[in-house]
Write a structure and sequence with these properties.
CATH superfamily of the largest domain: Lactate dehydrogenase/glycoside hydrolase, family 4, C-terminal
CATH architecture of the largest domain: Alpha-Beta Complex
Helix content: 40-55%
Number of domains: 2
Largest sheet: 9 strands, mixed
Distance between the termini: 41 Å
Structural class: alpha/beta
Shape: globular
Strand order of the largest sheet: 3-2-1-4-5-6-12-13-14
Bound molecules: nicotinamide-adenine-dinucleotide, (2S)-2-hydroxybutanedioic acid
Amino acid sequence: MTQTWSPRRVAILGASGLTGAGLAHQLSLSDDYDEILLFDLKQNVLQAHAIDMREAQIVAGRTRARLVVVPLDRAAEQEPVDLVVFAASLPETPDGTREAFLQGNLGVLDAVRPAIEALAGETGLVMIVTNPADVLATCLAHTSGIHPARIFGYCLNDSARFIAAISRELQVDPGRLDALVIGEHGDGQVLVWSGVTLDGAPLALDAAQRARIDADARGWFRRWSDLRPGRSSGWTTPVGSARTIAQLAAGVPVPVAVWRRDGDSNDSHTTLLAVVRDGAVVPTPLDYLDDAERAAVDEASAALADKALRAAALTH
Ligand SMILES: NC(=O)c1ccc[n+]([C@@H]2O[C@H](COP(=O)([O-])OP(=O)(O)OC[C@H]3O[C@@H](n4cnc5c(N)ncnc54)[C@H](O)[C@@H]3O)[C@@H](O)[C@H]2O)c1
Ligand SMILES: O=C(O)C[C@H](O)C(=O)O
């Protein structure tokens, strides 16, 4: 496997928001990045974040990464970056499903598409955080000149919630567990039971345990919505998206919504373990799944392809 991606310059669209700012803060505290370009409609908030983050860098003793606030209409004047992060969104008013965000966030994507294209240039990758992240990744692929394999969706939180649900069921420290969720960032998520480990060893769970864990993990978004928090997962997602970028850069497979095309030429961005190879985000071989899990992923891909096609109709 060729390791070809070394992100040193990152642009974040939606950087005044909870997840965009949180990711900028995470990256700014790492010596792995030279420059982080920040874009948002809310320029005053962005200026304040940049002042605060620069001072946080001094406190942390990590001053290498340069934070640069850029007006949205100056995006095309910037040198293309290695990674563009799309975290711009309408305000969060969750009501049990991420798909409720689709129409509004298609409008946001439409508004910033020229900036994403200019910043990604010929070789940059694009990470979609904005929900529904997987469907929007495919929509961007359909409507931009960026190759679909250079676009991926952030979906690591689902795996963290699967681990949390197993740890609640077994009453064990979540740090002893590893578990993976793939498929859709939403109802079509696929819990990879065959890969669950405790202390690195395969863990067998009986049907009743699986049913309780499944309900717990799948119920996360409904429970979250019922709190009416008016915010997204602003602690988990910045840490998770920084980790996702770092793993892709290191060649370590990480679950992201990655481009796949089925036999009927229907394409989707479906969450699978993926790596960067030759400038594209590609799924690793599916040999870590059993037959039932592979079938469930195919079903999720078909549903996602259909959602992306229906989304295209919303914009016309
Ligand atoms: N994929 C995931 O696992 C995951 C996790 C957490 C959040 N999310 C999603 O990420 C998105 C952002 O969440 P958040 O909590 O940071 O939201 P937020 O409301 O705090 O921030 C959104 C930001 O986007 C900006 N914005 C809106 N329209 C814009 C435009 N046209 N150009 C530039 N900036 C614009 C707003 O000014 C705001 O600062 C949401 O859609 C949320 O559902 C996804
Ligand atoms: O918007 C959110 O907070 C939900 C997000 O999709 C997530 O899974 O954390």
